[in-house]
Every structure is written in structure tokens, then in C-alpha cells.
Amino acid sequence: MTELLAAEGLSRRYGSLTVVDRVDLRIADGQRHALIGPNGAGKSTLLDLIGGAQRPDGGRIRFAGVDVTATGPAPRARLGIGRIHQRPAVWPSLSVLDNVAVAALPHAGRGSWWPGRYGRRVRRPAAELLDRLGLAEHAARPAGHLSHGQRRQLEIAMALAGRPRLLLLDEPAAGLSASDTQRLVGLIAELPRTVAVLLVEHRLDLVYSLTDVVTVLRDGRVLASGPPAEIRVAPALQQAFGAGVS
Ligand SMILES: Nc1ncnc2c1ncn2[C@@H]1O[C@H](COP(=O)(O)OP(=O)(O)OP(=O)(O)O)[C@@H](O)[C@H]1O
Ligand SMILES: [Mg+2]
């Protein structure tokens, strides 16, 4: 498989605290990769470093053959890195449809602006995405009126509208009901293999069912990385989470 992301020796410090410590992470095109570890392990910080929200204090990142270490989130998004956050981030006063349409704007072609007459170019694909995510009936509602689970789905629709080659998902199932979690799992499982996924998730049953490779992080360091069947019996899992976890 072709390499999509290669992070080498990534480090991030807050004062004297090293929260990401010389991390190497490789993600192939289309791969489903999980990042697991206890609270404070540095998972969200690592996603920030990959998405460009934070700059590393050491190491480098190549994405799709381009060294993006020194670039910000916008150029990385244009190259194909999409992100959903630990807390859903949507525009609350815009309609659900317009949230997705705005996210699709960079792909609408030259001369597009919002909410100009080219809006239709982004509204149609946005409506299709909402349909796929089961949000079509809420298209006209302000996003701020959605339930937590629906906001999660909307945020994924927004990320997909940016046509990512890598989707960074930070605890997408947190706070979701059992039925919303089921829907989300189906959605992630059905993503086309043109999209690679880096999933941060505490629920190991979801991790094992959704991903090809699992990386275990503790205190900012990679303890182990491998297929789920290997990781679930690896000593690193107990080392990271304590005895009794599988
Ligand atoms: N802005 C900040 N300033 C100082 N320390 C921070 C900051 N952001 C995060 N940290 C610390 O960095 C460490 C890693 O945090 P991070 O949020 O990446 O962990 P996490 O693995 O995502 O945890 P969780 O599972 O709770 O989401 C923690 O010890 C946290 O307290
Ligand atoms: Mg986190």
C-alpha cells in the first residue's frame, strides 16, 4: 500500500512536560488506524500535530509526499487532512445544509463564493452527503438545534465535504446513545477506501472492529503498534491501561 502519512520523531512539550515524545506513525492510503491510550496519553495533541492545529517541537510530518511540518491547518486541509474534534464544532446559527456547503466551498471551483449564485454547486453535493448520513430531514434546521449525536454526524459530513484523504476522528462515539453509536460505526465502516482514518477511541470493541492497525500510546510514547489481533494480547495493552483490559 502507498504511504499517505509519515510522522517521524514527533514531539510536543508544554513547559517542562513532554506530552508527545518522539512518536513515529505511518498510515497507508485507505488504512483504518486506531490510536488508543489512557486519559492524558497525548492522543488529541498528536491529532493536533497531524492536522496542523499545533506545531511540533521536534520531528517532521510528510503527507501525500509533501513535507507539511511547517504548514498550518488550512493548507493541510487542502492537501486532504480532515478532522473532527473531541467536542463537535459546527456553526450553530447556520442551517445544517449550509454547514456542509461551507465546508465544501474550497472544492467548488474558481469564482465560487458564499452565498453567491455558485452556492448551488456546493449545496447539491452537501445535500447528498446529508442524505448519506441520515441528516436529510434536518437540512434546514439551525445546526445549534441538533442533538449531540446529530452534531457528530454533521461534523463528519463537514469533514467529508472537504474530500479528505485522511480523516482524523477524536473520540467520535463519546456521549452518543447506543443507536447513534451503531449508526456512526456503520458510517465509518462504509467509508470508501479512498479515505484513510485515524481514530482515537476509548471503546476497544469499536477499535478492534473498525481498524486494521492499532497504536498504543502512553505518556506521549508509542508502546506498541500492530493489527488488532496482536495488540489485544500484547503486554503493552496492560502496560497502558492496567490489568484486565483486552
Ligand atoms: N494547552 C495545554 N497546556 C498544558 N498542558 C496541556 C495542554 N493541552 C494538553 N495538555 C496536557 O497534555 C497531556 C496530553 O493531553 P491530550 O489532550 O493530548 O491527551 P489525550 O490522550 O487526548 O487524553 P483524553 O483521553 O483525556 O482525551 C495531558 O497531560 C494534558 O493535561
Ligand atoms: Mg483527547
UniProtKB/TrEMBL annotation:
Taken from the record, one Pfam family name reads ABC_tran
SUPFAM superfamilies linked: P-loop containing nucleoside triphosphate hydrolases
Report the InterPro entries cross-referenced here.
Answer: AAA+_ATPase, ABC_AA/LPS_Transport, ABC_transporter-like_ATP-bd, P-loop_NTPase
ABC transporter domain spans which residues?
A: 5-244
Answer yes or no on keyword NADP: no
Q: Which domain of life is it from?
A: Bacteria
What residues form the membrane-spanning segments? none
What GO molecular-function term can you cite, just one? ATP binding
Q: Which UniProt keywords apply?
A: ATP-binding, Nucleotide-binding, Transport
Spell out the Gene3D superfamilies in the cross-references.
Answer: P-loop containing nucleotide triphosphate hydrolases
Per its UniProt record, what PANTHER family does this chain match?
A: AMINO ACID ABC TRANSPORTER ATP-BINDING PROTEIN, CONSERVED COMPONENT OF ABC TRANSPORTER FOR NATURAL AMINO ACIDS-RELATED
Can you say what this protein is called? Answer: ABC transporter ATP-binding protein
